[in-house]
Amino acid sequence: MATEQSLAVPRRFVTTVLPWLVGAGGLLVYLLTLNRWVPLNSLGVVARVSGWAWQPTLDHPLTWAVLYPFRWLPPGWIPLALNLFTAVCAGLVLVLLARSVALLPHDVTRDDPFRQVNEVSILSTPTAWMPPVLAAMICGLQLSFWEHATSVTGAMIDLLLFAYIIRCLLEFRIDQDEAWLSRCACVYGAGMANDWAMIGYLPIFIAALVRITGFGVIYNRRLLRRTVLWGLAGLSLYLWLPVLHSFSWQGAVGFWGALKANLKLQKDAASFLRRPAFRGLALTSLLPLLVLSIRWKSHTVQFGDDSRLGVFLTKATVRFVHALFFVVALWIGLDPTFSPRCLGLGPPMLTYYYLSAMVAGYCAGYFLLMGSSAVEGGRAKAVTPPRGLPVSDPRAAERRMGRLAAATVWVVLGLLPMALLWRNFGQISTTNGPAVREFARQLCADLPTGRSVVLSEDPRQLFLLRAELGARGYGKDALPLETRLLGSAQYHKFMANQFRSRWPVALPTNEVVGPLKMIKLVTAFAAQGEVVYAHPSSGLFFERFVGCPNGLIHPLVERVAKETMRQTLEPGMVATNEQIWQQRWTGMLGTLAEQAKKKPHCGPPWAWLLLAKLRLTGEQNSTASALGAVYSKSLNYWGVQMQRLGRWAEAGVWFDRALALNPDNLAAQINAKYNQQRRQGDKTRLEGAAVEKELQDMFRKYRNWGEILNANGPVDEPTFLLRAAQVLLPGGNYRQATEEFARCGELAPEWAEPKLWLALSYIGRRDFASALELTERIRTSGPPQDGAGLAQLLMCRTTALQGLGRTNEAAVCLESFISQYREHADVLSTAAELLGQNSQFGKELAVLDELLSREPHDLKLLAKKGWCELQLARFDAAAATLTRVLSRDRSNAEARLHRAVALFATGQLEAARGDYQELLKTGPYAQNARFGLGAIARRQQDTNAAMELYREYLSNSVPGSPEHRAAAQRLKRLKGN
């Protein structure tokens, strides 16, 4: 009894007082390293709480409900208040972790490390405080946990629920109070509604519940019913957001829409669990808990109860397993390359780190108890061995092993916090440092005074801008617009509701807003005040406006109507921007460039070699990397401007600085290579294939040149500038394409291809005179020698002449190219296309026959020939030609349609009907098939069928088209009959 009373005090301290001390210590660390503003990984949460996010909240209902009251705070206080709340949640998580580790069952005692005394066996040695402290340090100082503890993301709320569920299960194991199960079930249900990961843990939760209750939760109907009802009460949180959306003023989602959206989001997220990486992580967190929950016995069936070999093997196996799991848990806390953080799975996976910390705490308690048993064994009297055995202490090795295990835990407890701080404190200092806010301050400083409209493709910049303006004001009133969302009518309504007095146009009635309406909106804003872009860009709005740089901001100025080339920056603007960027580079960008390095190294080489062996290499800071990419894009843009002004040396400096901030800036890599080459006197353009091979890892990150330009800024090297300019043409950005093609020709004056593309961009702008003048210069100075270039020259020159009304000269030009460059198939193919556009089908047929004499099996040429014969009313020949096409390509719907027309014209109605019936199965030509079938039915005097087919055609055809009018007239005549 005295022993039990003496153990009650330290046990009560470890399970009751110590967890709060641990939580207070963790909270102090988080408060000292707290992010005082808006980190990049918190922008989404801060935007939702502040009311800036236009899309309705469909998931995480508990997080939304808990954080919603923060919206009532002044805008400048919201980020700090949210971060403080998150730090408190993190402290509570550590309290629950320490309490849970203290309550873990240790099935060993001082007398026999493998003998179970009772069902409730809490560690009660003098060192029982060490496992909870060790587990809290592993979890609390782990980088992902630390980041989410000092900046609001919502992940800490999910982890708090998870930790409380584990605590409830352990508490029930101690006192068998069913209230713990009720709380556990309710919280788990709420957790499932809030976090998809809880759905994945559900089978494990049920197994743990059955394991702890000893199947009592299944056989006890009252307990089972109560637990299920509390679980359903927690799951009712699924209905919270749908109910709110059903009463929302926007009314765009509704109850069922919101509920289905949340379930779909969780289903898609839960599909991640099928990935091999998640199964691998289970080996380091869930499997140890499963193995350690087994109550090992000292005896085995194979060797018998008194077998020393059996006892030895059992002890050795158990100790090895505990040591292995202990090492792996410590290793995971240091974030090796196979940890959840380094695998880049998306979610922070804090529950994995939490479970690993529990495993480490349990194993530490096991080894401490081994050491305690060794001490007790050393105090016991020596036992005289039986006769025939050597005179030695059989427990000496046991005592040495126990002392070594306990000493190891002491060493780990002393060294682990230093290792975690050394590894993670620099990352936290950078993430929670002033760099993000300084970027937002610079954005605000570069904004024009008074009212303005800020456009951006990056919502993060707009959120940062709103946060800084909300906190300090700066005497500026910015209306932020995300250009990628301007095509959504709901986004227009949301922003117009927030800025009622400033919205200049009527709200759209359709769900989709077209490009013309978007340009109209921006033009209306420009009439009210200044419109700026928050970063370098190109595309839709830059056909009407041109950006003039002012640091990070680019005010838009309306283009001159007849302007064709890039506007030259004024000297004052150049000097201002040069001064801005020089000051910012010396002020903070140089430091940011050091932080953004991919592999930060410090310390002696042997230390980094050891870390590499342990797969604990350095990690690039995500905040520094993201800011570095933004600044790198702007510096690369500024380097291009300097280079286009002829200041090659200064441009080279900015390209190098852009690469220092973001070594993966592909555009800056190309610009830097070309700039260095030009400064060395070599004016040749880069070899595209060689550069792509050298930088293939960077090229793989992007699908096309549009993505490269959006992410990295412009290029100013002929080979890749041509590709960048070609991206602009399909979107109708002819002015911008004209500027880029002209610059390409300026850098490589002997290269004909960019000049041909420049002529094509002139034609797109309907500037036929400039196109004709340029093609004349190309023709006289030396036309292209390849067939593709000659074909493009033919197309540009002929189209320009036709656009100017000089049709006779266009015909002469066409005939001249055919006769002069007949050996080039590309020229003849372009000539045939041009002849067809001018309805000169006889000449087109002659050209096609010549091409087919070279390539008799070219299906594309055969299909064109069949179309020409159809236009020339050679129906039998057309049907025969198109039959050749369809015999080798039955999926060619266009050829089948043309053959059906030809067969109908020759009176082969059943054959034509067969083709039309096939076309009914294809989407693009189903309408044409109904029209044709109606004509067949009409000719066969099947009035009812013809009327039905014409009605179907008219219900889906374009009103006003010739076919629509013809079908309407025929239907009218049929009704009259």
Low-confidence stretches: 1-7, 108-119, 298-306, 379-386, 388-392
Strand-residue proportion:
under 5%
**Neighbour order of strands in the largest sheet:** 2-1-3-5-4
Mean pLDDT score:
85
Radius of gyration: 38 Å
Count of beta strands: 5
Quaternary class: single chain
* Morphology call: globular
Structural class by helix and strand composition: mainly alpha
Distance between the termini: 113 Å
Biggest pleated-sheet summary = 5 strands, mixed
Blueprint of the fold:
Blueprint lengths: L1 H31 L10 H8 L10 H7 L10 H26 L26 H11 L2 H8 L4 H21 L2 H17 L2 H4 L1 H12 L2 H4 L1 H15 L4 H7 L7 H17 L5 H17 L15 H26 L6 H4 L6 H30 L16 H36 L3 H12 L3 E7 L2 H14 L3 E7 L6 H10 L16 H14 L1 E4 L11 E3 L6 E5 L12 H25 L9 H9 L8 H23 L3 H14 L4 H14 L8 H7 L1 H4 L5 H8 L5 H11 L5 H14 L5 H12 L3 H14 L5 H17 L3 H14 L4 H13 L3 H14 L4 H13 L3 H14 L4 H13 L3 H11 L6 H14 L3 H14 L5 H15 L1
Parallel strand pairs: 1-2, 1-3
Antiparallel strand pairs: 3-5, 4-5
Account of the protein in words:
This protein is mostly helical. Among the domains are: 2-377 and 396-429, no CATH class; 435-559, no CATH class; 839-907, Serine Threonine Protein Phosphatase 5, Tetratricopeptide repeat (Alpha Horseshoe); 925-977, no CATH class. It is 67% helix and 3% strand. It has 46 helices and five strands. Helix 5 (130-140) packs antiparallel against helix 18 (350-379). The model is unreliable at 1-7, 108-119, 298-306, 379-386 and 388-392 (pLDDT under 50).
